[in-house]
């Protein structure tokens, strides 16, 4: 979602033998909440989202686009169940790498390990920023921030996912959009 947290596929070209190309249709679940993450995804084309199930209601937590890497990193690194699901929003072309191959790369190449640590730190900062925005801002302010920081989300993501991400209903989002 954030350009700063993007790990570019080109930087990983030398590791292409470890990657498997995968094409998935829209609305494909790549990881289900509660399952252990064994794969990391690099988006070549398309869009993914992470979401949690709250008593049958899907709450979108993040969006990811071309050039982004996605996994339930906590699960991927600790073998604990994932706290969220990963799903395609659009048809996607993904480069995937297994947990074991990724671990081998990190152990053998310190520069990649440092890059991954920086990536994780930036992702943590983005998560904190989102969390504090939920505490401090009303939905209209959160929508304004979203438009200013990530205008491409408004153009590519269906309204019901944006509403879920903002913590409001689609009807409330329509009202906010109409006020602008």
Automatic annotation (TrEMBL):
PROSITE patterns for this protein: CNMP_BINDING_3
CDD domains: CAP_ED
Domain of life the protein comes from: Bacteria
Domain Cyclic nucleotide-binding: residue ranges: 1-123
Signal peptide: none
Protein name listed in UniProt: Crp/Fnr family transcriptional regulator
Source organism phylogeny: Bacteria, Pseudomonadati, Bacteroidota, Sphingobacteriia, Sphingobacteriales
């Amino acid at each position: 979602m954030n350009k700063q947290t993007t790990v570019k596929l080109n930087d990983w070209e030398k590791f292409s033998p470890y990657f498997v190309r995968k094409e998935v249709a829209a609305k494909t679940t790549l990881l289900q909440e509660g399952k252990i993450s064994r794969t990391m995804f690099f988006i070549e084309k398309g869009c993914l989202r992470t979401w949690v199930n709250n008593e049958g209601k899907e709450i979108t937590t993040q969006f990811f686009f071309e050039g982004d890497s996605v996994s339930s990193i906590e699960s991927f690194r600790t073998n604990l169940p994932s706290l969220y699901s990963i799903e395609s929003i659009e048809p996607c072309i993904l480069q995937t790498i297994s947990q074991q191959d990724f671990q081998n790369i990190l152990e053998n190449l310190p520069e990649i390990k440092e890059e991954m640590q920086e990536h994780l730190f930036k992702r943590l900062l983005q998560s904190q920023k989102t969390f504090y925005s939920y505490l401090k801002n009303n939905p209209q302010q959160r929508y304004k921030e979203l438009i200013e920081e990530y205008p491409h989300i408004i153009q590519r993501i269906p309204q019901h996912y944006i509403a879920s991400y903002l913590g409001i209903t689609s009807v409330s989002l329509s009202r906010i959009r109409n006020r602008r």
